[in-house]
Each structure stands twice: as structure tokens, then as C-alpha cells.
Amino acid sequence: MRNLVIVLGDQLDAESAAFDGFDPARDAVWMAEARGESTCVWSHRARIALFLSAMRHFRDRLRASGATVIYTELDAPGNSGSLGEELRKALVSLRPRKAVVVQPGEWRVREDIRRAAAGAGTPLEERPDRHFICPPGDFAEHAASRRQLRMEFFYRQMRRRLGILMEDGQPAGGAWNLDSENRRSFGRSGPGEVPPPASFPPDELTRQVISLVKREFPGHPGSLEHFDWPVTPEQARQALEHFVEHRLALFGPYQDAMWSGEPFLYHSRLSSSLNLKLLSPLTAVRAAERAWREGRVSLPSAEGFIRQIIGWREYVRGVYWLLMPGYLERNALGATLDLPPFYWTGETEAECLRQTVLQTLEYGYAHHIQRLMVTGLFALLYGVAPRKVHEWYLAVYVDAVEWVELPNTLGMSQYADGGVMASKPYCASGRYIDRMSDYCRSCRYDPSRSSGPGACPFTVLYREFLLRNRRALEGNPRMTMQLRNAGRWTKEEQMLIFREAERVRLELGG
Ligand code: FAD
Ligand code: SF4
After folding, report:
1. Angle formed by the axes of helices 281-293 and 299-306, nearest 10°
2. pLDDT per position as a tens digit, 329-352
3. Of residues 362, 367, 360, the one with CA closest to residue 271
4. Is 396 within 8 Å of 272 (Cβ atoms)?
5. Nearest to 232 by CA among 17, 60, 399, 58
6. What is the pLDDT of residue 256?
7. Which residues of the chain carry a pLDDT beneath 50?
8. How far, in Å, from the CA of 188 to the mean position of ligand 2?
9. In this predicted structure, what is the pLDDT of residue 447?
10. What pLDDT, on the 0 to 100 scale, is given for residue 485?
């Protein structure tokens, strides 16, 4: 054998650099389902099923195209459950001249693969991941040329480089970022009829995988009842087309809004397809740009969607590779507490948290503002250790892969990187949630109350957060307003705030 081409569970792209020069007569593909990848951190059962089903579909497609695929299923006899160990065994027995892999998305996995190849004495060729638009080296150069990293400047570079939403070298519509037009709530009347997203009921192969996951991971969180995620590139493409046709138009204005019983609203649900590499980010953004140029959607909707993909998504990957492995250990605000148990059950009287967690367990999905301004905000205000928050987010979403999850959780949501991802902590009282959703209407707490039994836990903890972190945040000009209010509280008021916060921690901490 000449080359053994390693394909990981989130590298399901037949156009990737792994297949450059692939010769079916002399090369083979290696894939393995490793239990350790679903248990080294806890994993939602829909997430496990999605990875395994998409991998098996990819395997069958490669085989149909004439490639030899050496594939170890999860329950195959002798499967050690460790990706690195399975690879080492394969390299020792197959003795290829070389192993080839596209740069893995996760630091730990890259180390495992390097170790396995070294252990087997096989040369390893690591090829760039062309799925991403900005290679880690380019991002490092971008970072080196700036005193402070900010997504906005990176995003402008990407727009110019790709010529997306550009007119005569200037941003279409005269502004780079139309975020101020992306923050509408639904008001009292609610969203009305929301068009349902494209749905892909499980085929025979996926049904087999679902049975396997039920059997092998009985204690894991999350439901498999609603599993309808795209598992092939064709389905991912259909999901994109459906989104652009039916939902993109209202994605922009209502990007930050939340509503009871509406888990998806106008969001695309494309993150898992993008992260598994079933869908290319350029295909997605070009489709949105086309819809705008053809007058089917407004500029704020197209720009809002495109910014998430060539802006935030590429940016967080850059931050991940720039700052790993030390990034994982960051804890700028010194938070140490455990995650309250309701994160795994949804059993809480705080309606916003109850609905977001239950929806997460049901579907393996919550949209960005639910992640950032409900579950993330609560963990930040409560003072949960960032590493524990990270482990939860990595476990519960079908789109969770570390390179995107970690900077979003540790950096954007928990401010544990001290301001690399976000210029200030995303901290707010319950009034933000009240403004952006209808959750507070059916909640037993009151978002405007900061003390007493009916006080909203967010509002109580927000005040204590400001007091507790005053020192760490006082040099931040974007926190001046919030801290100025906190500076006016008398000693007695401060004592009451700390007492109330302790009460809330006891009440919600289980
Ligand atoms: P849409 O709202 O339709 O957005 C379109 C696309 O833009 C998404 O599919 C996604 O690929 C991209 N995108 C949007 N926001 C971000 C962002 N902040 N960072 C990177 N890409 C973005 N996203 C993941 O893909 N995997 C994760 O594990 C993950 N963990 C997160 C953890 C926290 C605490 C937070 C605050 C955000 C996290 N995100 C993660 C980002 C974002 O919430 C999800 O990408 C989005 O909710 C997925 O739903 P969607 O496909 O309907 O996205
Ligand atoms: Fe959430 Fe507070 Fe509103 Fe209840 S009152 S839904 S806890 S923000």
C-alpha cells in the first residue's frame, strides 16, 4: 500500500486535500468509530448518531466510487474504543508507505494521530484543511499585526478577499456590519407561523445507527426521537436551499429573538453540516449573496448570515489554533463553581432556562442567543468554572466540535479569556431576556425584581456579578456604565445583593 488516507468523523468531504492524487489501486482510506470520542466528554445521543450515520454514509459513497475503505464500526470485535490506538494497530498491520491526514480540527485529536503514526513508525503527511477560508498561518499573521484582536476587522478582510457583498471595492449598502438591524424581538404578538425547517427523517442506515446508539450509550443525555439532521452532502445542500428560500428573509431581523416552543425560528440549522464538512461555507455564503442580488432577501438578512460564517466561524477557528493548548485552561474571572444539575435535566422554575435546556436535550439544538444569553449568561453570573461550562456545551449540541465550541464558550460567553473573543463580558439582567422573548410571561420570577422570593435569578446574580468582578473589569471602557451603577450601591445594599445571590445559588444550585 502506498498511502493510507485517514478520514476523521468531521472530515466528510470527498473534495478535501486528503484525496488529492488518490489512486484506488495503490491507496486506501481508513476510518474508525471510537467510543472514546463520545465518552472523553459526555455526548448527546443525537450528536453521536449524527457523526456515526454521516460517517457510514460517507464510507458507502467512497466504496461505491471504487475506493478501498478500512472501516471499524463501534461494536466491531476488538475495537479498543481509542482512535489513536485503532490507528496505530491499522498502521502496524497494513504497513502503508505513508499516512495522510487533513489537519484535524481538534488539538487533542491531532496529537493522538501524530502519536499513533510515530508509534507505528509510519511517516505522516498533514495536509491543509481547504474547507476553511482562512488558514491558521494567515490568521496568526493577521493577529500579529494588531494590538487587539477583533472579529470586525478580520471580517472586513474576509469580505474584501472573497469579494462578497462588495460593490466597487466598498461594502454593499455602504456599511460593513448591519448588526443594529438584526436585533428585533417579536413583540407581544409573537412570531406567528414560522416555516418549518427542512427535515430528513432517518433512512435505513441512520435507523441502524440510532438502534446502536440506544444500545451502546443508554446513560447518555438527549433524545433520539426527533433526529432529522442532514447526513449526506445532498441533504446538506437541500437544507441550505430550503433555508435560503423560506427562512433567510426573516433570519436577519429576528436573529436575536427567542420564543416559547419555537426551537429553530428563522435559524438555518446548518452548523452540523458545515462542521462535519458536508457543506462548504463558500457554497452557503454565495447562496445567501445570490438571494440578495436577486432581490429575494434584504441586505441585513444576507449580511447577518454571511457575517456568522465568514466572520465568526472563521474567526473562532483562528483564535482556537492561535491560543491552544493553553486556551483551555483560561479563567480570567476566577470562577470555580459546579454546573447546577438542572443543566442536565431542565428541572428548574426559571422558565428561560427550563425551555432552553429541555429543547437542547430534545433536539441537540439551541440557537446562538439561547446559548449565549440564557444558558451561557446564567453560568457566567452564577460563577461556574469555565472548563465545566465548556464540557457541557461540547456534550449537548449536535454541532459541537471543540475548535468552534471552545472559543464561543470560554471566550465569548464566559469571558474566561479576558477579552480575546469579546470586548466585554456578555452580562445582563433578566430584563434582556424579557425584551427578547416571551419566557418571562410564564415564569414564576419577575425580571425586574432583584430581591425577595420572586426575584429573577438573572437580575439578582447580575448585580452580584458586577460587585464581585468590579476590580477585574474596571479598566474596561465598555463596562464603565454598568460599573458606575454598581459604584452607587451603599454598603447595606451591597450586603443585601450578596445575601440574595447566595439564596439564589442555594435555590437553583440543587
Ligand atoms: P445560524 O444562526 O443559522 O447561523 C448560521 C451559521 O453561522 C451557523 O450554522 C454557524 O456555522 C455560523 N455561526 C453562527 N454563529 C457562530 C459563532 N458564534 N461561531 C461560529 N460560527 C457561528 N457553533 C457550532 O457550530 N458548534 C458549537 O459547538 C458551538 N458552540 C457554541 C457555544 C456557545 C456558548 C455559543 C454562544 C455559541 C456556540 N456556537 C457553536 C455558535 C452558534 O451558536 C451556532 O453555530 C449556531 O447556533 C448554530 O445554529 P444554526 O446553524 O441554526 O446557526
Ligand atoms: Fe428567565 Fe428571569 Fe425571565 Fe424567569 S423572569 S424567564 S428566570 S429571565
Report:
1. 170
2. 999 999 999 999 999 999 999 999
3. 367
4. no
5. 58
6. 95
7. none
8. 16
9. 98
10. 87
- Ligand 2 binding pocket includes 455 (Cβ within 6 Å): no
Ligand 2 pocket test: which of 434, 437, 450 has the largest number of ligand atoms within 8 Å of its C-beta? Answer: 434
413, amino acid identity: S
Q: Give the per-residue pLDDT at 38.
A: 80
> Hey, which of 374, 375, 444, 445 would you mutate to test ligand 2's pocket, going by the most ligand atoms within 8 Å of its Cβ?
445
Q: Measured from the CA of 442, which atom of ligand 2 is nearest?
A: 6
Q: Residue 463 and residue 461: Cα distance in Å, rounded?
A: 5
Residues 224 and 45: their CA atoms lie apart, in Å, by: 7
Report angle CA 38, 14, 30 to the nearest 5 degrees. 50
Which amino acid appears at position 238 of this protein?
Q
pLDDT computed for residue 450 by the predictor: 96
Whether the CB of 84 sits within 6 Å of ligand 2: no
d(CA 129, CA 135): 8
Q: Are 245 and 216 contacting, i.e. CB atoms less than 8 angstroms apart?
A: no
Whose CA is closest to atom 10 on ligand 1?
271
The domains located in the chain, with CATH, are: 3-127 (3.40.50.620), 136-217+231-323 (1.25.40.80), 341-509 (1.10.579.10)
Specify the pLDDT at position 148: 86
- Residue 243's pLDDT is 98
Q: Report the alpha-carbon distance of residue 447 to residue 471 in Å, rounded.
A: 26
* Torsion of Cα atoms, 348 then 352 then 354 then 355, to 10°: 170
DSSP 453: T
Which protein residue has the closest C-alpha to ligand 2 atom 1? 352
User: If you measure from the C-alpha of residue 373 to the centroid of ligand 2, how many angstroms do you get, rounded to a whole number?
Assistant: 11
Give the angle 174-408-501 at the CA atoms, nearest 5°: 115
Of all protein residues, the one whose alpha carbon is nearest to atom 7 of ligand 2 is 350
The C-alpha torsion from 275 through 278 and 281 to 282, rounded to 10°, is 160
**Residue having the nearest C-alpha atom to atom 42 of ligand 1:** 368
